[in-house]
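Convert to structure. Protein one:
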Amino acid sequence: MKTKAPTQGYAATGYQERPKRISITPTYDECETGKPYTVTTEVNGKSISVRDPISDPFVRTTTVLSWRDVLKAALRWQRVTVTVRVNGNRDRVEDVLELNANYLGNYNCTRRDEFNQRLETSLQAVAVVEEATEIIDSEDR
């Protein structure tokens, strides 16, 4: 029995469909709390622009330096440093950082409590093994 080649979707191009992504539980509603992030651009430590609050921390920004600024820096043998900072309130930044499973969080969170509990359990197990080793060594003498 022959099968026909697919004519639509990813299968037609030779690509396999990606498995459906499991979404995380949201921790805030932007409609109630407002847009949480601001973008600040600085040149040589001097703030040149601050964007209105935005909802997405993943932004692209372009800073164009005038030829006068570049020439002034070159004549003074200075570097031109451009800094772009995305700021947000502490809770929102913490939410983004907690997407990484290895991030322990601040001192008042359940992930850090779980880590501390596992660490204490491991240290207790090491202490028990060391104690048993000392007892065995003393009996051998």
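Protein two, convert as well:
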Amino acid sequence: MIFPVVVRFSDGQIQAALVGVPDVSAAASTREQALAALESVIVQRLGKGELVALEIRHGLEGAKKEGVKAFFQELTEEGAKIKDALTVKQWLTKVDIATRAFLPEEEMNFFWNHFFNRKQAVTLDDRDGCLTWLKAMCLKHCDL
């Protein structure tokens, strides 16, 4: 098994700690000694069943795409229920903020320019346009 480890110099010693589990750590005067001591701590914690190795069967890319797909579908369903312009504007803001984590900058620029950078008021037509855009982005980025 491979574990990600952080190695630092602190309080005159080299400290090695398991990434994400700060209480699984060891300190020594050299890097090699700290790593060896950490390995012993990890083996002990594995033996006690406190640490386990979890195999992701479908792969992280597949999980990410499924999560993004579900997220796009949730936004689309929420948008389809909107019946007034004020709520459309709030929903567009939510879509803008939420999709920035998933979409390339050029696609977000299209979204921003089409739905925010203009003088006229937001309408239900904007909701319909955004729903179409969201479906297109989901098709493109989720391999649906």
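The beta strands are 5-10, 13-18, 21-28. Residues 60-142 form one domain.
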